[in-house]
Each structure stands twice: as C-alpha cells, then as structure tokens.
TrEMBL record:
Pfam families: TetR_N (PF00440). Gene3D superfamilies: Tetracycline Repressor, domain 2. Residues 19-79 form the HTH tetR-type domain. This is TetR/AcrR family transcriptional regulator. It comes from Actinomadura vinacea. The keyword Ligase does not apply. InterPro entries: Homeodomain-like_sf (IPR009057), HTH-type_TetR-like_transc_reg (IPR050109), HTH_TetR (IPR001647), Tet_transcr_reg_TetR-rel_C_sf (IPR036271). It comes from the Bacteria. Keywords: DNA-binding. Residues 42-61 bind DNA.
Length: 226
C-alpha cells in the first residue's frame, strides 16, 4: 500500500475482509451444493468456484459438514421468515395459500442458487448437519398448510370432536400433496420462462385450493375408482 494514496501498490493483491470473504465462500458453496448435491460436492469444488485455495477455504470452515450446515441454516432462516410473515398477514385460508405460493415463486426468482439446493435436499432421508434442518423446514411448511386448511373448521362450534379429528387426519394426508405440487410447479415454471409468472401462480393456487375445496366438502371417488 502506498503512503501517498493509501491504495495497494501495483502487483500487490489486496486481502478481502474476513466477513466479505466468508460471504463469498458461502455463495459459492450454495451454488455447488445445489448443482451437485451434498454428497457429491467436495471442498475443492467450492474452492474452485470461489477462485480460492482449498487451504483458505479450510481457514473459514473446518469441514464440508460445517460449511453445508451454515449454508442450510441461512436458507432455512430466510425462507421460514418469509413464509411466516406472509401467512400471518392473512386471515383467510385461501389467501394464506395464495401467499405461500407467492413466497415460493419470489424465493425461487430471487435466490436462484438456493432454490435447487432446497428442491434437491428437502425430502432426503439422510441425517446430518443441514439435512435435518431442511427436513424441519419441510415439516414447518406442512404444518402451515394444515393450519390453513383447518382454520375455519377449528373455529366452527358446531363441529364435533370426532368430525374435527377426521378433518385433522385428512389434512395431514393432504399436506405432502400440496407442498409437493407447489414446489414442482415453481421448478417447472423456472424451466419454462415463456409461461407468465402470474399464470403459473394462479394455476398453482387454483389446483391446490379448488381441489381441496372439493375434498373439504366431502366429495370422494367411488370405492371402485380409488
């Protein structure tokens, strides 16, 4: 660094501040874990993507497990916060579902490196740092869906405890169908940019809400067709 200008002298590489370097490494890691998956991603992949040495990467993260755990913690915190804020702002069940759809489209659009990681690992059966947190995110998403479905039912004083128990059980069965269809719809839309986002969002909402409405009203397939 020259005394006159305070800038780095020619040919001298300026060291990146610790916090900024860590953020850069986490960004690179998010992209690699999303593309390759946790098990196929190695520390050298992350180092190469960040254009640093593997030794420097290990100065910030002691292991791949620690790195993945920090990446997923950031994703889970961000997405959980967005979903909670959006759903809590809605008093109507249908609008709550619409808000969740909108949040997922927003997240996939604004966080293109994080979205593939979520899709790839959300239903993985393996345990370990980060993977457990992603499964907990899936469970929280499912709980939010079930709560929206049951909001009106739970407030109905005419509903017997037996009928409410039947509704609770049915809601739990519907949860994986709902969030699975929403995640698939968002991923499909990302691969088909010629489809307008508004149309894709509306179709996702209608598919979930209108189908659920028929189930909630008691409509069932004839026994021979089940």
């Amino acid at each position: 660094m020259t005394r006159e200008t305070g800038e780095a002298a020619p040919g001298v590489r300026r060291r990146m501040p610790h916090a900024r370097r860590r953020e850069q490494l986490l960004t690179a890691a998010t992209g690699e874990f999303g593309r390759r998956g946790y098990h196929l991603t190695q520390m050298e992949h992350v180092a190469a993507a960040a254009q640093v040495s593997k030794a420097l990467l290990y100065q910030h993260f002691a292991s791949k497990e620690e790195l993945f755990a920090e990446v997923t913690e950031s994703i889970v915190t961000d997405l959980t916060g967005r979903l909670s804020e959006a759903v809590l702002a809605q008093h109507d069940s249908g609008e709550g579902i619409r808000a969740m759809v909108r949040v997922l489209f927003d997240y996939a659009t604004e966080e293109p490196d994080s979205w593939p990681l979520v899709i790839r690992h959300l239903d993985k059966p393996e345990d370990g740092p980060g993977l457990r947190e992603l499964r907990e995110l899936r469970d929280r998403l499912g709980t939010a869906f079930a709560d929206l479905l049951l909001r009106r039912r739970r407030a109905d004083p005419a509903l017997s405890p037996t009928a409410l128990a039947v509704n609770e059980r049915r809601a739990r069965l519907l949860v994986p169908l709902m969030y699975g269809s929403m995640l698939s719809m968002v991923s499909w839309w990302l691969e088909h940019p010629d489809t307008g986002r508004e149309d894709a969002e509306q179709m996702a909402y209608e598919f979930i809400w209108l189908g659920l409405d028929r189930l909630r009203s008691g409509e069932r397939m004839p026994a021979q067709d089940r």
